[in-house]
Amino acid sequence: MLRNKEKLFIARNRIIYPNAVYHVTNRAPGREKLFLEDEDYLYKLSLIKKTASEFDWKVFCFCLMPNHIHLLFRIRNDNLSQGAKSLFEKYAKYFNAKYKRKGPVFCKPFRASLCEEDSYLLTASLYIHLNPLKAKIVNSFKEYRWTTSNLYTQKISPSTFIDYKFILNLIDKDLNKAKETYAELLKKSNEVEHKFIAQDENAVNKFRFNLIALKNISGISSFNGNETSNLWDEIEKFKTKKWLKDETNIKAKKYLIEQLLADGYKISEIGDMIGLTRQGVYRILQQGKGK
């Protein structure tokens, strides 16, 4: 687990504490663009570097898309909101001045997901790096310039403010082996359904469950022996008629459903996952009361 609470802060319903890791996203309103030419991307990158230095953030990876951005980083203090506000407002001021426009450049507020498990952190990095490919901007993740995927897959190790080694070390302490495995994970991850956060705020969590379901990634330590893997096993067990009909399993069934609800899944989505109707899911939740 990544959590190391020293002092807990609550801001805009976000859980904030020193040394926590966050996946932050923000996008342009409607069909507007954030970047119109290379100079815009380069300016945003310079702001990310300056913001990381000023607020003492450790940036693990990023992806700048034409109409939205992804950042994965660790904060040292309770300055997530202040740092993100500075990062987005400075770029908005630059963009509006350059293109002689008025109005918001980013949607408000930005989204920030707390990464509490190594499996979520690794999954979030894969999700971020796959964005250009899933959006069909490029045919290979290697072709996209405005992301950190090459730091995770190419053998060269350039000097950079991005701490790409932290996530790679979750895979293997041998950096070259870790990069080879990460490149394979990217290829396999491309087989998994990938919804964009703009369409579904629980997109990364759902992507993680589907990724864990792939049997050919079971050798990665970050996906072994963790709560999410066990939860997926429970989902598979739930689908067996014998277990489903066993009335002694009510508490276990209710607990599983509650875990999925806590992860942001809707009743209809849970029903699809475990092979029940909405009414069936509600019935189990009601049956479990007081037991």
Quick rundown:
The chain is α+β, with helices and mostly antiparallel strands and 291 residues long. It has two domains: 185 residues, Alpha-Beta Plaits (2-Layer Sandwich); 61 residues, Arc Repressor Mutant, subunit A.
Architecture overview:
The chain has 291 residues and is of the alpha+beta class. It has 2 domains: 185 residues, Alpha-Beta Plaits, CATH 3.30.70; 61 residues, Arc Repressor Mutant, subunit A. Helix 1 packs antiparallel against helix 2, helix 5 crosses helix 6 and helix 11 crosses helix 12.
Describe this protein with a few key phrases.
single chain; 291 residues; alpha+beta; Alpha-Beta Plaits; Arc Repressor Mutant, subunit A; two-stranded antiparallel ribbon; 6 strands; disordered N terminus
Instruction: Report, as a whole number of angstroms, the end-to-end distance.
Output: 31 Å
How much of the residues is beta strand, in percent? 5-15%
Question: Counting H and I runs of at least 4 residues, what is the number of helices?
Answer: 12
How many whole angstroms does the radius of gyration measure?
21 Å
Shape: globular
Name the CATH class of the largest domain: Alpha Beta
Strand line-up across the major sheet: 4-5-3-6
Count of beta strands = 6
Largest sheet: 4 strands, antiparallel
Order of helices and strands: EEEHEEHEHHHHHHHHHH
Counting helices, strands and paired strands, the structural category is alpha+beta
Indicate the CATH topology of the largest domain: Alpha-Beta Plaits
- Low-confidence sequence ranges: 1-13, 215-219, 224-229
Number of domains: 2
CATH hierarchy: architecture of the largest domain? 2-Layer Sandwich
Q: What is the typical, i.e. mean, pLDDT?
A: 79
